[in-house]
Amino acid sequence: MVRKGAALRRVFALAGLNLAGLLGVSSTAEAQGFEPIPSLATPSAAVPMEFDAAPSGIAPVGYVAHHRATHCDGGACGCVAPSTCVTCESGALCDSCGSCGGQGDCGCEPCYSGWRCADPWYIGFSGGWAHRDTVFEEGDPTTFLVFEEGFAVNLALGYRFDLFRIEAEYSFMNHEVERAGSGGFDTGSTGNVNVRALMFNLYHDVDLSFTAWRPYFGAGLGLFQSELNSLYPDFFADPAAPAGFATSPINSTSDMPFAYQFRAGASLPLSDRTEFFSGYRYFKGETLTFASAPFASAAAPTFQPDGAEVHSAEFGLRVSF
Question: At the top level of CATH, which class does the domain 118-320 belong to?
Answer without folding.
Answer: mainly beta
